[in-house]
Amino acid sequence: MKLELPMTLKMGDLMNEEDFFQFCQINDTLELERDSQGNIIVMSPTGSFTGGFNSRILTEVGIWNKENQIGELFDSSTGFTLPNGAVRSPDVSWIREDRWNALTPEQQEKFAPICPDFVIEVRSLSDDLKYLTDKMDEYMENGAQLGWLIDRFEKKVYIYQTGAPVIIREALNVKLSGEPVLPGFELDLAAVIK
What we know:
The chain has six helices and twelve strands. With 194 residues, it is of the alpha+beta class. It has one domain: tt1808, chain A. Strand 9 and strand 10 form a beta hairpin. The chain starts with 16 loop residues before the first helix and ends with a helix.
């Protein structure tokens, strides 16, 4: 596979926000992220089981979000430009309505310059755990309030909260509380892992 560059760029040029967005549009069959140093990361597709698991989690958060109507929910195809310049795509993410509405329509249409309030990453077979924990740290450093890293291979859940050490639960038969970021939301992992 050959990567295509926007016509305004040559190989080796650094990409600004618009260049990277165009690069992703031209190469729309790939899942791409960019780290804070400008390195482009090609993401592999998840396995079918992980994709189904992600969908069940997204559905649970979506039901809560529809009932509460206090924010916007996003799937794993959504890119966000974090304050440190990285462009990341969490498996599941949510942003408070007031923060989302503060963005212009143009900002919302591209890789919105905002860090989600809540993120979930689910480890797939192709994911390195260190890479995911670094990504979770990055979300928290850039403004996320709550994050869950679900590692079904090691049967652990890493719970990230602003101003608190990471909590590691050693099993996947736990109920995760979205409080205070997602008021009243609870995810029963045992019910969605199947």
